Amino acid sequence: MFQPSSTRQVTFRTRWQQETGNTLWMIAFRGANQIPNKPLTTPIASLDMSFIMRNFIASFLILVSGHVLACMPSENFDIYFPPNSASIPAQEILRLANWVVDQKITYASHHTKETTLVSGHAEELERNPQRLAEARLTVGKALLNQLAFLRGTVKTSARVYSRRDVDNGRRVEISFEPECPNKCCTSE
To answer: Superkingdom of the source (predicted)?
Structure first.
């Protein structure tokens, strides 16, 4: 007679198992070399409780973390600057121009409210960081104006990053926030 290997096992058989004598279902859970002469326990009853708890916790976390995977409707871009400078490098101008073209194509027929957020940033170790953040904001906003991409309500700000706040605080952040329809919703 086969003895259960775990004290947590419960011995019972489904009606189908009793009628057919099918032992194939045990291959997946016990391995072929552990199959007794006749069927014993249902695989669900013989599973280790820690396995069940791990699966329950993982499923629960996936269900409650849906907001983490939620769509962000804003389109974001950063213009990066050299240290202690408010001059936009040529490669950054080209990157911004390409991004602006993409946004103009994507939102060409967009007719609902739009907001453009532009914020200049500097790192605290740069010379006159607050003034530098404001200068970067000014040149970033002027470039967006030249590219005709100051859409909707425009909000501006300037900020100085403390040490180790970010990897590169020498930038202008641009966030274009179109209301629905956007990449997260299609209804008007």
So the answer is: Bacteria
* Chain segment 1-34, per-residue pLDDT in tens: 555 554 444 445 555 455 555 544 444 445 555 5
Angle 104-107-112 from CA coordinates, rounded to 5°: 130
125, two tokens = 């170790």
Domain with CATH 3.30.1330.60 in the chain: 75-178
3-state secondary structure at position 116? strand
Tokens of 46: 């013989």
* Sheet of strand 114-123, all strands in order from the earlier edge strand to the far edge: 75-80, 171-178, 114-123, 153-161
pLDDT value for 121: 97
Length, in residues, of the chain: 188
The answer to whether the CB of 150 falls within 8 A of the CB of 99 is no
CB 45 within 8 Å of CB 7 = no
For 75-178, CATH number? 3.30.1330.60
DSSP label of 176: E
DSSP 8-state class, residue 105: H
DSSP state of 25: G
